[in-house]
Amino acid sequence: MKIAPELLDRFRADLFALWPDLLDGSEKLGIAISGGGDSLALLLLGHSALPGRVEAATVDHQLRAESGAEAKLAADYCAELGVPHVTLRVEVEKGNLQSRARAARYRALGAWCGERDLAGLATAHQLEDQAETFLMRLNRGSGLGGLASIRSRAKVPETTVPLVRPLLGWRREELAQLVDSVGWKAVQDPSNQNTDFDRIKMRENLARCDWLDRDALGRSAKHLAEADMIIRQTIEREFADKVTFDGVEAVYREVGSAESQSLIMGGVIRAIFQLYGIRVNQRVGSGLADNLIRGLKTNIAGIQADVREKDGESVWVFRRENARRVS
Fold first, then answer.
1. Count of beta carbons in the 10 Å neighbourhood of residue 67
2. What is the pTM of this model?
């Protein structure tokens, strides 16, 4: 199947910008394909950009009677292109359906990449997905990390497998047109019409707001992701340079230097808590930093934090709380 040269050149530029090593290497890329229009377009573009170097997987969540047939359709399209394909069947735990399904999906895809020795995974998130995510998180009052929305490059959750999303600058409509141009019929997931899901509510509202510039929202998310990366790198450097841990006490030295503002110090505190196997969010970390700046001893999640004098300087010391006596 022939893809318009301008579309293929555009996709190659987007993909190789995220992963330059793919340009001249022989590594293979895994593609997550649901059978929907976005993922079918990714399959077509990926196969054309990396001939003989892509494999595909469809995750069957087994939540709808039609899911097996939809996975079979995806497999048929892959066979038409000569792309190896596998269907990964998962069980979704009870709870938040979309969240649990996402977790199960990425677990299966990460394991598949490892089994097939694939260099990484590509998913078909596109510009409207990015705009929806940005606005949903803005509406929740998310911080910088949340407003960065869908990252163009990350890791498959709970793995070291690289994850790339080369279609974040592409619109849903142009991807659908590409699929139509080769005579394929995309799967229509009925859950995409279910307004019980927050994302679908946002999608419908966004469709009515023709004054909103999706490209601008995408650029904002990208800029925020870059800023978040810089902050993360600063936190990592601050932690490496100023925190020591002897297995019992963590000591944070040179607190209050020019670059150590509440945001950075809160991030370092979060990393310190992870030394004890405890996760806290940025709000808790920054709040604890504010308390320690004021000299307030604070106990959070079983960790005691206070200010001490060591070697002539004021330091922050963290340790587990002493076990409470029960009479």
1. 20
2. 0.81
